[in-house]
């Protein structure tokens, strides 16, 4: 039991102890001689691969990790070299980066901003990683990008499709190879108009969070520009697994196209529900009812099974592409793991190579030097045709694939077929486009 | 001194020494060695240890003393984080106003939720708090996006107004959090032979606040108020029959523990200025329950220990991948190496949940009093050898909440 007896001496004594305690940390102030955060001084350089290993995007994360390991092998001169042989820049020698052997650490983002940042921080503070890459959702990518800016390391974004990553949340230390929602809309809309006609009424079901909204906005504005009418935009909670109650009103709305702004498990469920309701056999306004899934991935197509047949969408890259680079990548990935890579695997492999090449060309690992080498960099031979890393927002501009679910798949991986390759020029936008406005890159931060 | 008895003072001193020497204690292996993988002495994780320690200490005031199991405490942590980040955006990058505001806001929020939820007890109370927390999470995730920035999480930008202080530093980057100029991220590195120790300003701020929080919790445990809370846990009906209204007491305990959660949230944002909605999800609320039970509910030190264990698994075990395993077992012949890697593989890397789950089951089955009980049993074994078996816990008869001082 406590008794509160305040004596003059007791108060003084407590005060002195507390005071000494508060004063103690000021003894330790920052002092560091390195030119930038985690300057590699030994014979190796450490990269941090931060992907979801548990949670809803664990499949994508696992595939990304495979591609990272492959990229590291190729950089260190093991394996068949993959896309290093087709890459237009020939700086990489297969002896690591700048002569330093590439090592890596991995972490689990759990598709949560907090966990992702904790994992990235431990890579930076404990393992001395000089670059962080990964992410399978835009929220996580944006959170980690902000952290890397603060800590003074380069962030090479993985799978992130939201406009914000290189829009209002862009950062000088962050770079994105993957395409974005605007590009999906710009690539998809002409194909939709050509297929389904210019006089259509669209109904949007949208996952209720940042990515869903930017995607809905992008697709709606792209299709409306071609004469389509947007009947209704309905937000669905992210945790929803049964979309029946959202599908039923679609039938009575007078719409003849359903656009599913869903990703991952959400999309698998909503598409399955829509097909089970017989939407695709319906005729509305004298036209066949159509379903569109703006962002496709092979892993999602696999989840949705036969329901994806004939459904249009867009993707960053697909393994059935027949250019030399894609073939080389599919071959070395297939040899090592026994199945073709997903678009997530492709984009992170490219990001690793692009980072290594930029270091090589800059002659340093300093984030500012690397950033400069990447800004405005034009390259080819990584599977997407000629590509530009735009300096204004650190976004890659390249061709976008419009795909559809294959009618007669020949294997469990052969689920999508490329309908059209939309040229980069058609998906390019101004850096101050209203959908991307509001952010600033800031200046590059080398940390230390 | 400090109004606590000798035993408690010793405990406080032990905790203080552990907290202050953590950079040494948590880095037992030389940097660069294979075992360095298990080192936890880097700023971010050390900060998390003490911040979640504060969270668990606060939760324990409610759960350990009154027995009310709240499944929504993460909401207060999240609210605290959001308040702190808004303070950074609008007022200044000094952490003090941010932390103060986060405690106040979390206190008010818990008053509101507690007032409603505490009309019921037992499982109904748990469900109510869970519902409120999930509601907060969903609001933060989508509806309240203008305030919370939704899925992306609330971050600082270069356009923040920041009344006291500048929107951007001279070289065009976002200013960093500080305490009157002392940057939270500044770290002093000390190399001793092969060892590398990191002393981080932010960590020490957290550690001092944790000690203060620990001390305050200790006073609450020992106070008449704490005794009343324990009475509620033991037999609330009987308490009511004696003519006492227990509601004000439970509500006070609820608000106090909500403020602790807010403090933890504010500190998290101060160390790393970001507030995400996931911080409020039910899994986060469940985590603090696990921490408290794993360490030992109703004990002083238990929740802190539990918090440390869970964060250690989350951050250290999840980073052990196959290539690290191959590195460890490389000295063995190939076949054995691969076999061992295959056996260990499911328990590390993405399997860290599994290991933690097994540990949790083992603790609940064999040590119902948590890790603290394990410590007590070991201590008792040594005592018996010395021949003094008398129970010095007579003060707390007629027992039987686990003793609070260990």
Overview of this structure, please?
The complex is a heterodimer of chains A (448) and B (406). Chain A is built from 13 helices and 17 strands. Chain A is an alpha/beta fold. Chain A folds into two domains: 44-179 and 319-398, Response regulator (Rossmann fold), CATH 3.40.50; 182-315, Response regulator (Rossmann fold, 3-Layer(aba) Sandwich), CATH 3.40.50. Chain A has a seven-stranded mixed β-sheet, sandwiched between helices. In chain A, strands 2-1-3-4-5 form a five-stranded parallel β-sheet, sandwiched between helices. In chain A, a hairpin with a 6-residue loop joins strand 14 and strand 15. The longest helix of chain A has 20 residues, at 343-362. Chain B has a domain at 6-280. In chain B, the strands form three sheets. In chain B, strands 1-6 form a two-stranded antiparallel ribbon. In chain B, strands 2-3 form a two-stranded antiparallel sheet. Chain B: Keywords: Cell membrane, Membrane, Transmembrane, Transmembrane helix. Chain B: It is a multi-pass membrane protein. Chain B: It is found in: Cell membrane.
What labels describe this entry?
heterodimer, A: 448 residues, alpha/beta, Rossmann fold, seven-stranded mixed sheet, 37% helix, globular, B: 406 residues, mainly alpha, two-stranded antiparallel sheet, 62% helix, 5% strand
């Amino acid at each position: 039991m406590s008794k509160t007896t305040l004596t003059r001496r007791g108060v003084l004594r407590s005060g002195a102890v507390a005071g000494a305690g508060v004063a103690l940390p000021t003894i330790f102030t920052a002092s560091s001689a390195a030119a930038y955060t985690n300057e590699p001084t030994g014979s190796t350089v450490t990269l941090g691969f931060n992907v979801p290993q548990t949670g809803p995007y664990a499949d994508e994360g696992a595939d990304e990790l495979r591609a990272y390991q492959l990229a590291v092998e190729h950089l260190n001169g093991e394996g068949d070299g993959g896309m290093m042989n087709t890459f237009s820049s020939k700086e990489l020698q297969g002896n690591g980066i700048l002569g330093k052997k590439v090592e890596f650490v991995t972490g689990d983002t759990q598709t949560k901003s907090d966990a992702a940042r904790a994992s990235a921080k431990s890579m930076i503070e404990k393992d001395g990683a000089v670059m962080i890459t990964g992410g399978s959702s835009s929220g996580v990518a944006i959170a980690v990008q902000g952290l890397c800016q603060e800590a003074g390391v380069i962030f090479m974004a993985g799978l992130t499709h939201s406009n914000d990553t290189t829009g209002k949340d862009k950062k000088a230390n962050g770079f994105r190879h993957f395409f974005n929602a605007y590009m999906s809309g710009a690539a998809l809309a002409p194909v939709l108009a050509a297929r389904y006609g210019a006089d259509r009424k669209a109904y949007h079901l949208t996952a209720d969070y940042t990515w869903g909204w930017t995607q809905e906005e992008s697709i709606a504005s792209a299709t409306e520009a071609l004469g389509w009418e947007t009947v209704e935009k309905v937000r669905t909670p992210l945790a929803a697994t049964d979309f029946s109650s959202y599908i039923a009103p679609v039938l009575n709305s007078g719409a003849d196209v359903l656009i599913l702004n869903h990703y991952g498990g959400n999309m698998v469920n909503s598409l399955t529900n829509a097909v089970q309701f017989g939407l695709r056999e319906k005729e509305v306004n004298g036209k066949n009812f159509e379903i569109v899934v703006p962002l496709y991935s092979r892993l999602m197509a696999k989840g949705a099974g036969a329901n994806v047949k004939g459904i249009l969408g867009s993707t960053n890259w697909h393994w059935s592409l027949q250019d030399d680079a894609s073939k080389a990548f599919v071959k070395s990935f297939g040899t090592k793991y026994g199945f073709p890579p997903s678009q997530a695997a492709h984009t992170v492999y490219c990001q690793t190579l692009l980072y290594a090449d930029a270091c090589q060309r800059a002659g340093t690992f300093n984030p500012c030097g690397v950033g400069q080498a990447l800004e405005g960099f034009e390259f080819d031979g990584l599977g997407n045709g000629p590509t530009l890393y735009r300096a204004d927002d650190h976004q890659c501009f390249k061709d976008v694939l419009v795909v559809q679910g294959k009618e007669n798949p020949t294997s469990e991986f052969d689920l999508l077929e490329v309908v059209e390759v939309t040229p980069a020029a058609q998906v390019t936008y101004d850096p101050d486009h209203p959908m991307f406005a509001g952010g600033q890159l800031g200046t590059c931060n080398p940390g230390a | 001194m400090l109004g606590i008895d000798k035993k408690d003072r010793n405990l406080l001193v032990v905790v203080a020494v552990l907290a202050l020497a953590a950079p040494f204690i948590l880095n037992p292996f030389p940097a660069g060695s294979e075992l360095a993988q298990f080192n936890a002495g880097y700023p971010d994780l050390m900060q998390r240890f003490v911040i979640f320690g504060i969270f668990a200490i606060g939760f324990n005031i409610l759960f350990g003393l009154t027995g009310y199991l709240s499944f929504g405490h993460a909401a207060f942590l999240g609210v605290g984080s959001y308040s702190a980040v808004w303070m950074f955006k609008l007022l200044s990058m000094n952490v003090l106003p941010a932390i103060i505001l986060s405690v106040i806001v979390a206190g008010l929020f818990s008053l509101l939720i507690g007032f409603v939820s505490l009309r019921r007890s037992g499982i109904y109370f748990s469900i109510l708090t869970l519902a409120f927390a999930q509601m907060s999470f969903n609001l933060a995730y989508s509806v309240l996006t203008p305030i919370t920035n939704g899925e992306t999480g609330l971050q600082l930008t270069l356009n923040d107004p920041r009344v006291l202080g500048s929107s951007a530093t001279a070289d065009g980057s976002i200013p960093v959090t500080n305490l009157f100029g002392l940057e939270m991220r500044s770290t002093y590195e000390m190399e001793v032979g092969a060892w590398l120790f990191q002393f981080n300003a932010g960590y020490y701020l957290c550690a001092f606040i944790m000690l203060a929080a620990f001390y305050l919790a200790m006073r609450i445990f020992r106070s008449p108020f704490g005794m009343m809370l324990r009475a509620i846990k033991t037999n609330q009906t009987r308490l009511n029959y004696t003519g006492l209204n227990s509601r004000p007491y439970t509500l006070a305990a609820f608000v106090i523990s909500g403020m602790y959660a807010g403090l933890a949230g504010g500190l998290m944002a101060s160390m790393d200025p970001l507030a995400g909605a996931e911080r409020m999800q039910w899994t986060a609320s469940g985590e603090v329950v696990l921490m408290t039970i794993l360490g030992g509910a109703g004990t002083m030190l238990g929740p802190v220990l539990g918090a440390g264990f869970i964060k250690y698994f989350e951050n250290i075990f999840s980073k052990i991948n196959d290539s690290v395993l191959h590195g460890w077992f490389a000295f063995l012949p190939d076949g054995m190496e691969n076999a061992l890697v295959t056996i260990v593989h499911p328990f590390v890397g993405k399997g860290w949940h599994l290991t933690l789950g097994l540990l949790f089951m083992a603790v609940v089955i064999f040590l119902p009093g948590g890790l603290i009980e394990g410590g007590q049993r070991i201590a008792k074994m040594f005592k018996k050898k010395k021949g003094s078996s008398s129970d010095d816990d007579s003060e707390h008869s007629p027992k039987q909440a686990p003793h609070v001082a260990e």
